[in-house]
């Protein structure tokens, strides 16, 4: 899996602008929509709000401004409608100016971040959104390509190595290279916990040993978090009966086991 990218990388910084404590982007998008369409109903549709929701937002904005922002236009050749009051146009102009200044400020800070590659890299990794509970940043340390399948090894920040198996075609699309920065994703449901191997060896390539540091019990299952010696964590979802049978509790040593084919690797385009 490749992280979305382009010649111009996505911004790492963003900020929400509000005026008078409650006038945000939605208010001014609605005002702009009313100015363009002459209708609250049509303006609401352009912003993705219901007519009722748009009216409530605009009424609240007028209360904050302590002056009317909209005026009705009587029917005639144009059919009537709604227009902005002079006060609303002043507010809209002020908003556009503030928005431009904020964008300029954020752009300057983005340029500053470009001189701090380690921090910028950290923020990019943190910006990825995924349902996989286990996410690790690391570097590809080994790559084995076969005619049918490929094996990618990623050394994560704790010093542990996680192995992923994928098809050769997937590896080709990924265009992975040794030394390349990568993210490793593992769903908690794919992790098996072992507290006693009883002299047996498992075929699963990935085995991370740690200590139970947290347990969140639900009606059916329990989320168990292991803390690794290097400071990282691994989360696993087990049934409540399974957690009880293993004698899991905070402080108990355990090993998180997951197969290589359950690991997803992401690299930036």
TrEMBL record:
One of its GO terms (biological process) is regulation of DNA-templated transcription. One of its GO terms (molecular function) is molybdenum ion binding. SUPFAM superfamilies: MOP-like, Winged helix' DNA-binding domain. It comes from the Bacteria. It holds the Pfam family TOBE. Residues 130-138 are annotated as: Required for dimer formation and molybdate binding. Residues 129-195, 201-267 form the Mop domain. Transmembrane segments: none annotated. Keywords: Molybdenum, Repeat, Transport. Belongs to the ModE family. This is TOBE domain-containing protein.
């Amino acid at each position: 899996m490749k992280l979305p990218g382009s010649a111009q990388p996505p911004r790492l910084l963003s900020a929400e602008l509000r005026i008078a404590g409650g006038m945000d982007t939605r208010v001014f998008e609605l005002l702009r929509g009313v100015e363009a369409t002459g209708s609250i109903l049509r303006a609401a549709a352009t912003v993705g709000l219901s007519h009722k929701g748009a009216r409530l937002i605009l009424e609240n904005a007028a209360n904050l401004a302590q002056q009317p922002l909209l005026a009705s236009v009587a029917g005639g050749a144009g059919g009537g409608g709604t227009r902005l009051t002079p006060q609303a146009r002043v507010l809209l102009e002020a908003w556009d100016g503030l928005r431009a200044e904020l964008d300029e400020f954020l752009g300057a800070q983005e340029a500053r971040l470009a001189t701090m590659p380690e921090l910028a890299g950290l923020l990019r990794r943190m910006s990825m959104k995924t349902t996989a509970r286990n996410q690790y940043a690391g570097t590809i340390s080994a790559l084995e390509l076969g005619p049918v399948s490929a094996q990618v090894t990623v050394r994560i920040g704790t010093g542990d190595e996680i192995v992923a198996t994928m098809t050769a075609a997937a590896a080709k699309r990924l265009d992975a290279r040794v030394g390349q920065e990568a993210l490793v994703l593992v769903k908690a449901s794919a992790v098996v916990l072992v507290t006693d191997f009883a002299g047996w060896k498992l075929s699963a390539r990935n085995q991370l040993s740690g200590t139970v540091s947290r347990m969140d019990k639900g009606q059916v299952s329990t989320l168990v978090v292991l803390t690794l010696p290097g400071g990282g964590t691994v989360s696993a979802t087990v049934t409540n009966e399974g957690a009880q049978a293993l004698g899991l509790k905070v402080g108990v040593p355990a090993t998180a086991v997951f197969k290589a084919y359950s690991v997803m690797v992401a690299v930036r385009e």
